[in-house]
Task: structure prediction
Amino acid sequence: MSAETTNPPAKSPRVNLRTPDVMTAVQAQVESHYRSEIVERLRLSGGTLTRQGVTIKLAKQFGFCYGVERAIDLAYAAAKVFTDQRLFILGEIIHNPEVNEQIRALGIKNLIGKDKEADVENLTSEDVVIVPAFGTEVSTLAKIKQLGCQIVDTTCGDVMSVWKRVRQNANDDVTSIIHGKASHEETKATASRATQSGKGHYLVVLTLEDTDYVCKYIRQGGDKQEFLKRFSGAYSEGFDPDLHLRRVGVANQTTMMRGETEEVQRRVEAAIKERDGAERAKESFRFFDTICGATQERQDALGDMLSEQMDLLLVVGGYNSSNTSHLAEMGEAKLPTYFIRNASRLESRDRIVHYSSHDKAEITTENWLPRLPVVIGVTAGASCPNNLIEDTIIRVFALHGIPREQLL
Result:
């Protein structure tokens, strides 16, 4: 067998993408795609805009967070620097369809998911692979490194903080109970870190109902096969609830609702204390606050806005965005709320197309817009660019015959 077939490809030298000249060009390009003059003016003027009986209230915190901006900047920089190489990305860079369309327009092909355009197995050491803001699974990253590809890692720092916690849990023989969506890219990446050492375990819970089921098992045991069937696809290989719920640590997908994650933690801790006693529980339970700061800021800002008088709320963003969907949930608990992908969903004053968390699909609602005077709240998740928020604001006023020029 030749050396060519036995030796792994040489590791590509690390390239610094954040040089002043590259980032200056990137910032200009990113701003041309996503910046909004109206949103910036609205932010600076206190977040309220009224024209002819129509009032828009913009949440104090909304839209792109630092981690998302960094991921997008690095993807754009990669397209500028690696002009003679093929560029790929491990799935969506963030959960916003318009942004992902822009990434594709840069010539970056997707390697993962329903929109996959190429296969990891067909990469070569000459290729560039972008890791999205959610991170990626350990096994996928290992394949790419083995191939010798140039890696541009845009993983959010908050996500990596969770990885640190679950790896520590694994090293200490503590099972990570991860509050999140088992199918979400971030949760998959986090779960893979829990088993990276070869001895760790994890269990993913999504709802408080899931949590209560786990807590009941912690307290009194139960039907193991029923447990494993209920959480199929949401636990590590070899997971045994009779063994691996003895010592647990609660972690989370960073974009979950803080209050719900804290309730998961409280219920699991109470179950451990009831089973082991308060003193022993100090050794068999642990919890770290790993909710994304930007996610929390947007939830807090919306909470403040919901205490004000409004007729309805528009939440703008990708339907598969976890942090955005939680904003919609908060709104739905208080007043009529419409979760829209973009301004095109505001079809007329009588008709709106919006996402239903119950139906898991877009639905149409008639007679959604109240008569004047009307006060409409607007917010967006951390993956939504300002230009889509502006488009929505412009469309609301346009439906009342108020042109863009009168908003400036």
Remarks:
- The chain has three domains: 36-64+294-407, 66-155, 158-291.
- Residues 258-276 form the longest helix (19 residues).
- The first strand starts at residue 48 and ends at 51.
